[in-house]
Amino acid sequence: MSTAGGTRGRPRTFDRDAALAAATQLFWERGYQATSVSELTQAMGIRPASLYAAFGDKQSLFKEVVAAYGHSPAGAFVGAALGEEPTAYAAFARILREAAEIYPDPSHPAGCLTISAATNVAVQDADVEAFLRDLRNANLRVFQDRLTAARQAGELPGDTDPHALAGYFAAVIQGMSQRARDGAGRTELIQVAELALTAWPTHRPSPRNRPASRPD
User: Fold this and answer.
1) What is the largest CA-CA distance in the chain?
2) What are residue 116's phi and psi, to 5 degrees?
3) CB 3.0 to 4.6 Å from 85: which of 45, 91, 131, 135, for a disulfide?
4) C-beta of residue 118 within 8 angstroms of C-beta of residue 129
5) Long-range pairs for 149-152: beta carbons < 8 A, 24 or more residues apart
6) What are the residue boundaries of the HTH tetR-type domain, all occurrences included (predicted)?
C-alpha cells in the first residue's frame, strides 16, 4: 500500500545542486569557521546524515563549494579575462572593472569567497586556510605567467618585474573584495580599479632618444 509521503523506508531525496548553492551562500557570507554543520543542514534542507553521505565532512563540502564557485560567473571572471583578452593590459583592466561590478553585487554576498571565507580560522581548521592560500598563490602565478609573456612579447618594458606587478594586482583585487565586504559600492570600486591601472608600466624613451629638457 502506498503512502502520501512515498515508499516506506526510502530516504528522501534532495536537489544536490540547490543544496550546494545554499551552502555556497552561507560559506560566502559567514566564512568557513563561523558556519556550523547545523546551520548548513538547515540552509540546505537536509539532515546531518545526508550531508555526510552526499558531501563527506564539512571541509569536503567546503572544497566542493569552492570548486563550484570557481565555475560560476562570480568566480570565473578572472580566468575568462585572461583567456579571452588579446593583451595583458586588456585582461587586467577587464579583471579590475568586472571585480568592481561583481564584488558589491547585492544578488550575492559581497566580495570574493576564496579571499574572505577562511579568515580567523581555528587551529584545527588551518588546513582550510592553507587550501585557500594555495588557490590564491596559484592565481598569482597565473598572473605572473601572463605578465612575463607580455614582457617577452614587447607589450611591457624589458625592466618590468612580472612577479612584483602580479603581486600588486593581486593585492588590489583582494583589497577591493574587502572594501566591498565593508560596504563599498560600485562607484568607489570603479575608481579604485581605474587608479590601479595607472600603475601599468609604459615604455619610456631611452636617454639617447629622450627629448632635451627645456631651459628655464
Assistant:
1) 102
2) -110, -10
3) 91
4) yes
5) 149/88, 150/87, 150/88, 150/89
6) 13-73
Summarize pLDDT for 77-94 with one digit per residue, the tens. 999 999 999 999 999 999
Q: CA gyration radius for the chain? A: 23
Half-sphere exposure of 102 (CA within 13 A, CB side): 18
Cβ burial, residue 208 (10 Å; 0-12/13-18/19+) = exposed
Global pTM? 0.84
* Grid coordinates of 39: 546551520
- Supply the pLDDT for residue 42: 94
What domains, with CATH codes, occur in the chain?
16-68 (1.10.10.60), 73-199 (1.10.357.10)
* DSSP structure string for 76-144: HHHHHHHHH-SSHHHHHHHHHHHHHHHTT-TTS-SS-HHHHTTTT--GGGHHHHHHHHHHHHHHHHHHH
Q: What is d(CA 50, CA 23) in angstroms, rounded to the nearest whole number?
A: 14
Is the CB of residue 196 less than 8 Å from the CB of residue 169? yes
Average pLDDT, stretch 60-88?
A: 95
Write out pLDDT tens, residues 149-207.
999 999 999 999 999 999 999 999 999 999 999 999 999 999 999 999 999 998 655 54
